[in-house]
Design goal:
291 residues; alpha+beta; 6-stranded antiparallel beta sheet; binds flavin-adenine dinucleotide
Length: 291
């Protein structure tokens, strides 16, 4: 295979995507309690245990289609202060507390009691003492063949070629984040909640440099397609042109959405393991999504 395994169409390493993520604005901590209660953390109890979840706000499909925007989600991130009694208590319970933590716990019985009531009776998140409350956003990336991993000319200490990463971002991602932030502020106001002050760069029409970073979710470099001209693996995760080579990882995502990748990676891996385990070698193609 002169161009490399699975690389007949020069696709291996292309379409590198990550999630771009960052704070788009901040709430005033003295007025943010109601909006945090409604849109912040909440607790779900089930026979399998108690889990804390965080609400996310996404653009409606109608807005996305009408304005040609990507997937993204916004959420409220509470930033605990150094003297937050719940964090101090958690450190104490893990045996990692110092004198400062003990003082903070003993000095804040009211906040701890109120938190216990919220958590176990009202099933809401704990009321932390806050250093700040941010509105954060995570956005998917537009697949771009020029966003690419290639191999550098030199090797690492183990003799493996070092990866050369040329990660591209697009203006559509910036526009999606700015529009989502604008709509969120408008909706918070319409519902009577405190509104965040948006960062300058996150305002619609801003030309300031966008302050979003990668989120350690590398994706897309062996993308899936039924057509070998457009993908490295087929819908069963098998490398096109090779009978017995499969890939299970976020590299097969043709698009990466805005959500964390691990559960999807696991679902793909379990599906592949089932097919390999039964020896059928063929995977069921996931049903097409209803439009
Ligand atoms: C700090 C951090 C926090 C994260 N938090 C979350 C989270 O909360 N939720 C979530 O969904 N995701 C999270 N992620 C992302 C998630 O961990 C990754 O998206 C996921 O692990 C990617 O899985 P993968 O199998 O595609 O690739 P990887 O986990 O990167 O696996 C690649 C594997 O291939 C091996 N490998 C690489 N090159 C070669 C080679 N040439 N030969 C043989 N083996 C090779 C590597 O050693 C590695 O074991 C987080 C990531 C980081 C770094």
């Amino acid at each position: 295979m002169p161009h490399g395994v699975g690389n007949r169409n020069d696709l291996v390493g292309r379409y590198l995507m990550d999630h771009r993520c960052g704070a788009v604005g901040a709430f005033d901590t003295t007025t943010s309690a109601a909006v945090c209660d409604r849109f912040g953390k909440y607790v779900v109890r089930s026979p399998r245990g108690t889990h804390t979840f965080l609400h996310g706000l996404a653009l409606s499909e109608r807005v996305q289609r009408a304005e040609g925007l990507l997937h993204c989600a916004l959420w409220i991130q509470e930033m605990p202060a150094d003297d937050d009694p719940w964090d101090a208590l958690k450190r104490m319970l893990r045996g990692r507390a110092d004198r400062h933590d003990a003082r903070v716990v003993l000095g804040n019985p009211g906040l701890l009691l109120a938190g216990a009531r919220r958590r176990w009776i009202q099933r809401a998140g704990l009321p932390h003492r806050l250093a700040g409350v941010e509105l954060r956003c995570m956005v998917e990336q537009r697949p771009d063949p020029d966003s690419r991993i290639t191999l550098a000319d030199h090797d690492d200490r183990l003799g493996m070629p070092v990866a050369r990463i040329d990660w591209r971002t697009s203006a559509l991602e910036d526009a999606t984040v700015r529009r989502a932030a604008e709509l969120a502020v408008r909706e918070f106001a319409r519902l009577g909640y405190a509104t965040p002050v948006l960062s300058d760069w996150a305002r619609t029409g801003s030309t300031a440099p966008v302050r979003l970073t990668d989120w350690a979710h590398p994706t897309g470099t062996t993308r899936m397609s039924a057509d070998s001209r457009h993908g490295v693996v087929d819908p069963g995760c098998r490398v096109h042109g090779v009978d017995n080579l499969y890939v299970a990882g976020s590299s097969v995502f043709p698009t990466n959405g805005h959500v964390n990748p691990t559960l999807t990676i696991l679902a793909l891996a379990v599906r592949l393991a089932d097919a390999l385990g039964t020896g059928s070698g063929t995977l069921r193609t996931p049903p097409a999504r209803a439009s």
